[in-house]
Design brief:
With 248 residues, the chain is α/β, with parallel strands linked by helices. It contains twelve helices and six strands.
Length: 248
């Protein structure tokens, strides 16, 4: 039986941003899938046109959505998440009895708010090109950052702009990540930007991820877009090598 792999996208990105990963993991023999958040439309444009009908939902709704998906799989999955998706993967591990977790740029989400002020109005909003560059494309050329924005940027809820750590339903009790024996090994994948911010952060979430005894792969010259930019394959191959080492 092929090992299921569930990929969870982060804020302001559509699930199709995982398409290349899904193909690579499928070619390597895994049953890979990348479901969107509850209510996301199948395409980027349709999600934009619906104004992110899903995006105003609570984090607990998103967590429950992925827990149901993982629970319906024929074998324990490997959960792979990016940004907030990485935190979701970590906190879903015990609920789904995950075989393993790979959390990318979860340190970045734990260390700071992604933007400094809410957009006008109360509904979900897509990042502007400048905001997207500040959040994801800070180490990329303007051309590449703008291309990624055009390809995959979708609306996200307003709490994403103001909360410095994951919302309350996601936060773990002290020691939970280290002590939880109901999930498999954990790999943290971090860029140089997220490591710098986590080291400087006073938030419990960032410190806890660093000291929980998890494996860490650092890409010091990369930024938060490391799973979607032109260097994505190096990151994906690193994850596959780690999974091979753990016989997943």
């Amino acid at each position: 039986m092929r090992r299921p792999v569930v990929m969870i996208h982060g804020l302001w990105l559509h699930a199709s941003s995982w398409d290349r990963w899904v193909k690579l993991f499928t070619d390597r023999g895994y049953a890979a899938l990348a479901p969107g958040w509850p209510g996301d439309e199948p395409t980027v444009q349709a999600t934009r046109d619906s104004h992110g009908a899903t995006s105003g939902g609570k984090v607990s709704d998103i967590s429950d959505h992925y827990a149901c998906i993982a629970g319906d799989l024929p074998a324990q999955p490997v959960l792979i998440g990016h940004g907030l998706g990485g935190l979701l993967a970590l906190t879903l591990a015990s609920r789904t009895h995950a075989a393993a977790v790979i959390a990318m740029e979860a340190l970045l989400v734990s260390a700071r708010p992604l933007t400094r002020k809410p957009a006008p109005g109360l509904g979900p909003a897509t990042l502007s090109r400048d905001e997207f560059r500040a959040v994801y494309g800070c180490t990329l050329s303007r051309e590449e950052s703008d291309r990624l924005h055009e390809q995959w940027a979708i609306p996200a809820p307003q709490w994403a702009r103001r909360d410095p750590v994951a919302p309350a339903p996601l936060t773990s009790r002290p020691g939970e990540l280290a002590a939880n024996s109901s999930r498999g090994p954990v790999l943290l994948v971090a860029s140089g930007e997220s490591e710098r911010l986590a080291d400087a952060s006073r938030t419990v979430g960032a410190r806890q991820l660093l000291v929980a005894g998890n494996d860490l792969v650092l890409f010091p010259d990369r930024g938060p877009s490391l799973n979607i930019d032109s260097g994505w394959r190096l990151v994906a191959e690193s994850c596959l090598s780690w999974m091979d080492a753990h016989e997943l």
